[in-house]
Amino acid sequence: MINGDTILFALLIVTLINLARYFSALRSLLYIMRDAHPLLYQQVDGRGFFSTQGNWTKQVRLYHYIKSKEYHHHHDELFMAKCDRVRELFILCITLLVVTTAAAIIL
């Protein structure tokens, strides 16, 4: 029989790995965004995005940009692919966080 702690630990490991994948994809998106969409890069505070002095309101701008799929009108296919990847990984991470939290409460 599988112990509840083992299930919770496995979910936590999978969630952390996917969270690392999400942050890595977000970093590469910001790197590509610097050349592909400089105005958006400035609007989302691309330089200070991961710093402690990062502006949260500017970072939310990137969330809304990706959530509403505004990148589908962009000319750079690599940029669009990275945006799709970040969006998919964000949805996966949020889902895993909810499932892991629910499992922690239940178990």
UniProtKB/TrEMBL annotation:
Pfam families: UspB. The chain crosses the membrane at residues 6-24, 89-106. Keywords: Cell inner membrane, Cell membrane, Membrane, Transmembrane, Transmembrane helix. It is a multi-pass membrane protein. It is found in: Cell inner membrane; Cell membrane. The keyword Cell inner membrane applies. Belongs to the universal stress protein B family. NCBIfam families: PRK04960.1. This is Universal stress protein B homolog.
